Amino acid sequence: MAVSETVAVPATTPTPPAPGRGRRGRNAAYWLYLLPGAVLFILVIGAPLVGTGYLSLTKWSGVGDPTWVGLDNYQQLLHDEVFWASFRNTVAMIVAMVVVPTLLGLVLASVLFDIIGRRFRPRTAAALRAAFYLPQVLPVVVAGIVWGWILRPDGAFNSLLDAVGLGALRHDWLGDPGTALPAVMAVMIWVQIGYPVVVFMAALQRVDPELYEAAEVDGANWAHRFRAITLPQIRPETFVVALTCTIAALKVFGPIFALTRGGPENATNVPSYFAYYTFFKKLQVGYGSAISTVLTLIIVVVAVVFIWMQARSERRDRGF
Amino acid sequence: MAVTLIPTESAVVTPLRSTPSRDRHRRGAARWVVLALVTLAALAMLVPFAFMLLNAFKSPTDYSSGGPLSWPTEFYTKGLRTYWTTVNFPLKVWNSALIAGSVAVLGVVVSLLNAYALGIGRVRGRLWIVGLFLLANMLPQEALIYPLYYVAKEIGLYNTRLSVIIIFTVIQSAFGTYLLASVLSTFPRSLLEAAALDGAGKWTVLWRVVFPNLRPTLAVLLIFFFIWTWNEFLIPLVMLIDNQTQTIPVALASLQGDRLMDAPTTNAGALISLVPAILFFLIFQRTLARGITAGAEK
After folding, report:
1. Is residue B25 part of a domain?
2. Which residue ranges are recorded for the region named Disordered (chain A) (predicted)?
């Protein structure tokens, strides 16, 4: 790696144009390589995206011709209680899929790497990491189906409560609008936690071990090392995890489909399930398109803000 | 990146020198407490898998009398066999493998061609193009699904595995293009120039110089594409509607709530749906660990 990096340095300095051929003319031939990708991209992503934007301005059931209604669908959205509920639930999904897993993941990765990996054998840390990561391997819909069964009134969780003498707490966890959302959040934490743990542990491998050893010789305990070394060293990875998990939380569909189908009484409805239901069950294609378009705009804004913040913090680091 | 950060960090560490050093003996005991706590948390993570195993091989009568926590009185495999034959599980594995495998290979090829033009060719406006690909990867699939569904019906691609393969090749290669373009923008120019001096054209340089150097990254990308596509749900759910074409997650989800799916059958179905995923995990674990650290060093 070190070798390729030193070789790579000249790439950043502008290379003089090859004799005889102009740089622009030489590069133009590369467009050919972009052609297949660009055509596929326009057909599968560009055109459908524009199509959804157009349909959001119409009323359509999927047969016949769409009727132009202007911004009516968006006006209707503003007064739609289900729409607002679905976005409130998205905030809950961000807590369950981004905030809690990232914070827990930072602590767990640091404990596994800094305490268990160094005071016990690294293999112990690797085995524990695998246990946290296992739910990530499971297709998320399969996870949803198994948890749906565990949380049923006659499911394993209530039996477990009985077995430890807490039978009074038996409950229809996913069937009660009051507990459905917290139950879904708990499942999502279980699903997500392995991702930050694995990414952060991989990130810690590239931190110079002498930093930790020096800090320890100086008497810094785990909490000191966590604040002074672990957190600042793996900040780039923390950004990436927070961004990818936030996008995943905004788009979450499979687990909701498998666990609750947005119910009971929309207590766990999210924008993507709401859009799917509006498209394919209520056959209101225009309205479903409006929901999807709003979700798309929110995701684009979130992504741009994240990338801008990351670029700014990297610039600050270089300023030292 | 790591190299530039280290000097600033050691400066942060120095003030801690004044902290008095801890009693060695006490710290020795504390580490066992930490190990016990983390092990307990890790075991708690595995409990749902234990429930799945415990109930997948239990007969329905056994389940209704003993409940979800009892030890099975016999090794009951009829739930598993019912699920296996009803959904034609081998066909579902084939569908999933065909779709995920084709997407992985095609997605990597398209990503490589795009990234070659963007990272090595440095075509005009490449930053905007790369940004567009990155955003495309983040789009909610709901924003694409209805037009895709409608057009697929019009041109006879609805309910075919080919439709899903084409769609995911594009979606996955959006991410691949973003990743490879940034990897290739640091590709050693001297290698390219040496090849050009030898009279190699762009096509030859791509396959003889760039491709061999990129092989480890491409392998990781291939595995990611495979697993991501294997686990996809919304688009296969909408596009694939019958037993002949469905993938493993869609088959399991569309039987949910069916009379056939009593607790043991549900668990058996979930359990065998999990087996291929765990197999990939075990097979690819080393490649992935290598790839992640290679990516982090960049």
Report:
1. no
2. 1-22
Domain enclosing residue A179, as ranges: 75-318
Please give the ipTM for the structure prediction. 0.83
Contacts of B106 (CB under 8 A, 6+ apart): B165, B169, B173
* Chain centroid offset of residue A199 CA: 13
pLDDT tens digit at each of 320 positions of chain A: 333 333 333 333 344 444 444 455 557 788 889 999 999 999 999 999 999 999 999 999 988 899 999 999 999 999 999 999 999 999 999 999 999 999 999 999 989 988 888 788 888 888 898 899 888 888 888 899 999 989 988 888 988 888 888 888 888 899 899 999 999 999 999 999 999 998 888 888 878 888 888 888 888 888 888 888 888 888 888 888 999 899 999 999 999 999 999 889 899 999 999 999 999 999 999 999 999 999 999 999 998 898 888 888 777 776 64
- In the chain, the amino acid numbered B149 is Y
DSSP code for A9: G
**Which of B195, B214, B219, B213 has the alpha carbon at shortest distance from B205?**
B195
Q: Which of A40, A235, A239 to mutate to test the interface with B (most CBs of B within 10 A)?
A: A40
Q: What is the CATH number of the domain that holds B203?
A: 1.10.3720.10
Cα separation of B283 and A2, whole Å? 29
A12 occurs within a structural domain: no
- On whether residue B232 sits in a domain, the answer given is yes
* Tally of domains in chain B: 1
Residue A248 lies in a domain: yes
Residue B65 lies in a domain: no
- A218 contacts on B by Cβ (under 8 Å): 13, 16-17, 19, 21
Asked if A237's CB is within 8 angstroms of B234's CB, the reply is: no
CA nearest to B115, candidates B67, B75, B173: B173
If 0-12 CB within 10 Å is exposed, 13-18 middle and 19+ buried, where does residue A187 land? buried
Domain membership of residue A40 (yes or no) is no
Kindly determine whether residue B189 and residue A10, on different chains, have CB atoms separated by under 8 Å: yes
Token output for A224 = 């000191």
Mutation target among B6, B62, B142 for the A interface, most CBs of A within 10 A: B142
**Inside any domain, residue B270:** yes
